Amino acid sequence: MRPWIVWATGLLAYIVAVLDRTTLGVSGLPAAERFAAGPGLLSVFVVLQVVVYAGAQVPAGLLLDRYGSRALIVAGATLMAAGQLILAVTESLPLAIAARAVVGLGDAVTFISVLRLVPRWFAPRKIPLVTQLTGICGQLGQVLSAVPFLALLSASGWTAAYSSAAAFGALVVVLVAALVRNAPDGVAVTAETMGVRETIASVKTVWLRPGTRLGFFTHMGTQFSVTVFALMWGVPYLTVAQGLSAGMAGTLLTISVVAAICAGVVIGIVTGRLPHRRSRLVLGIIATNAAAWTVVLALPGRAPLWLLVVLIVVISVGGPGSMVGFDFARTFNPSSTLGTAQGMVNMGGFVASLVLMQAMGLILQAAGGLSFDSFRLAWTLQYAVWALAVVGILITRRKARRLLALQDDRMLLEGIDR
């Protein structure tokens, strides 16, 4: 029972992190009024958060390896609560942007810290499924921002809503400090203090492990499409290019969450029972993503609703599919550097998403604004990312398999020697 209590408390911290991550997305119009900002400035909030999140992954991983999950989750929740409290009381745009960066920094350390708890507290066979459950249950934070947070924002105003989010974060700090431990009693968790040179060497060593890079390209190829769709360009595409109402676009995003939850459970079970088939599963997810987009983009006009539903469901599988990347990191890295490896893996999808969001914006602007034709051209940029990810997966998979074969041969020889 204790492992589930520890995990559930960490999961609550991640749910709150997702809540804090998405609050600004559901309060765009009030934010524009409060800070007297147009759409261009408001987009800075989204881009800044992704930049901070992606850029902080390796430092967060190093800190995680040094100080453990409990300290990092508490620090992350504290940062997010502070950022949300500043947003609640300020009317200054520069200060609000800085506060959003603080929220992004706290968010950056939370997810990989919660993931780090899973192999410490659960048996190896359960790890893939619990990892998937962590990712998909964390999306409940998006539901919290879309329903109770938005309702409070509408009923009581900006300050009350964001202050409540900050209070929720403070509650998480207390619960994590009281209930979470880095490992079960009696399991030693030690970390050496390293200087700058040793730290750089450690980062290089972790990156050069083929399993780390396999996880990086896995995360990149599976996650970016649904992330870009959900964070920035999905709703404009559905409403402007495909002619759907805002309500119908919201319904499709809800379907996306449901599809991700269902797919996550299946992927967790499959990867737990068939660990040697994980890369094939990932390549299959990437192929179906590319195929679904190809069908939609090849149409000369708007797609029928059923096809858009299929597209949403297919790309949503990429979210839980990206979690396989963390499983690769766990398989090919020792516990002492697992946090660094997971941080590197987590960069894959978010760096690709950031680049694609910006590149699509430039294409849309160069093509004359938001339209069916400009969106169709902009979405084709995805194929370059898929190609890079697939090549990276195939190369690093071969190297990882060769490394495993060498390790198996060494263990066999040692057994014979004994």
Find the structural class using helix and strand composition. Answer: mainly alpha
CATH superfamily of the largest domain: MFS general substrate transporter like domains
The number of distinct helices, counting runs of at least 4 residues, comes to 19
The radius of gyration computed from the alpha-carbon positions, rounded to a whole number of angstroms, is 21 Å
User: Percent of residues in helical segments?
Assistant: over 70%
Query: What amount of the residues lies in strands?
Result: under 5%
What's the CATH topology label of the largest domain?
Answer: Growth Hormone, Chain: A
Q: Structurally, how many domains make up the residues? A: 2
CATH architecture of the largest domain: Up-down Bundle
Tell me, briefly, the overall form. Answer: globular
Measured distance between first and last alpha carbons: 40 Å
Order of helices and strands: HHHHHHHHHHHHHHHHHHH
* Total number of beta strands: 0
> Could you name the CATH class of the largest domain?
Mainly Alpha
How can the largest sheet be summarized? none
**Global mean pLDDT:** 86
Poorly predicted runs of 5 or more residues: 411-418
InterPro entries: MFS (IPR011701), MFS_dom (IPR020846), MFS_trans_sf (IPR036259), MFS_Transporters (IPR050171)
Organism: Mycolicibacterium chlorophenolicum
Main location: membrane
Subcellular location: Cell membrane
